[in-house]
C-alpha cells in the first residue's frame, strides 16, 4: 500500500484534523479507502467531535486498523472562557501544540430579545502584517491554523452559545487573530465544509471574511464562495497614511483593492463592507472622510466606523463622539450607509485590535483586531 511513499506518510502519524481537502483526498487515495468509508471518517473528523480514530463508527475492522496505524485526530480543547460586563465572551482554546487561540462571542439584545449571536474566529496564531494599532500584529507571525482548527473554533463557539444562551450561532466572522486571506487555503476549505448542513456554523450568507485588502484572494473568494460576505479594512484612503497605519499596504495599492472590491460586488451581487478604524488625530479629520468617500466613488459599499480600543503599546487614542458624528455625516451625505461599531469585550481584552496570545506557557495578553466585531 505504501510502496511509493506519499509525502504525507513521511511523518507518521498523520493528523486528520490538520489536512487540507486536497491532502485528504490524496491520503485516502493512498489508503485505498472507498467513498463510503471516506465519508464516515470525514464526518467524524469535521462534523462530529470524535476524539480518536477508534471512535469513528461503522468502519470495518480492517479499515480501522489501517487508519489507527497511520493517523490520529488532534483536537483543541477549551482552556478558558472569560465574560465581559457587556455580555460578550472570550473563548480561549488550547491547540494540540500548546498554542492558544481566541474566539470572541457577541450576543446582541434588543427589547429583551436576543436578536443576534455572532462569533469572531481567529485564522492564524499572530499575524505577519504588523498594523500599528493591533496587538496581534505585535506578536509576530507564528503559524496558520489548519482547516480542522478553524472548524473546531466554530463548533466550540456554537456549543458555548447553546450552553449560555440556549440558541444557535447566527453569524460568523473571520476577524479574530491573523489575516484570513493570508491563510486562504485553510479558510476556503473550512468554508467549503461549512456548506454542508451537518457541519458547524451558520449558512454562507451569514459568514463574513475580513481582509486588509489582499486583492488576489478577494477575487478568489468571489469565485469560490460567492455567498460569503466580504469586509475590507481600509482605515485611510491616503496611500501614505495607510502605509503608516498598515505597513503591508506598501504592497497593496488602494486602486487594486478597489478594483477587487468592484469585481467581488459584480460577481456576488453583494456590496462589501468597508471597515474604518477611527483613531484620534490619525485618520479622523473631515478631509479623511472626504478622501474615503472619493476613493469609494460609485462603489456600493457599506461603511463601518470602528471605535478604537485602547492598546497601550500602540499609544493611540479613541476619537471623541462629536468628531465621529461629523465624520459619519460627511460619508452619509456622499450616499454611503454608515454603521458605527462600538467594540465589545474591552474589559476582557476581546475588543478591536486587542487579541494577542502565544502559547499556554507564553501568554502575553489577549485581544482582537481587523474588523467589525472585534478587530480592525
Ligand atoms: S489588523 Fe489584521 S492584518 Fe493587521 S496586524 Fe492585526 S491581525 Fe494582522
Question: How is this fold's topology laid out?
Answer:
Blueprint: E1 14-15, H1 21-31, H2 35-47, H3 61-70, E2 71-72, E3 77-83, E4 89-94, E5 100-110, E6 113-121, E7 124-126, H4 135-138, E8 141-144, H5 147-165, E9 171-174, H6 184-194, E10 207-211, H7 215-224, E11 229-233, H8 239-245, H9 254-268, E12 273-278, H10 286-296, E13 302-307, H11 321-333, E14 338-341
Helix pairs in contact: 5-6, 7-9, 10-11
Bound molecules: iron/sulfur cluster.
The whole-angstrom Rg is 21 Å
Q: Please, how many helices?
A: 11
- Fourth CATH level, the homologous superfamily of the largest domain: Aldolase class I
Mean pLDDT score: 88
As residue ranges, the low-confidence spans are 358-376
- Bound heterogens, unique: iron/sulfur cluster
CATH architecture of the largest domain: Alpha-Beta Barrel
Could you give the order of strands across the largest sheet? 3-4-5-6-9-10-11-12-13-14
**CATH class placement of the largest domain:** Alpha Beta
Strand residues, percent: 15-25%
Instruction: Output the CATH topology of the largest domain.
Output: TIM Barrel
Give the CA-based shape.
Answer: globular
Q: List the helices and strands in order.
A: EHHHEEEEEEHEHEHEHEHHEHEHE
SS content category: alpha/beta
Helix content: 25-40%
- Rounded to the nearest angstrom, the distance between the terminal CA atoms is 49 Å
Number of domains: 2
Number of strands: 14
Describe the largest sheet. Answer: 10 strands, mixed
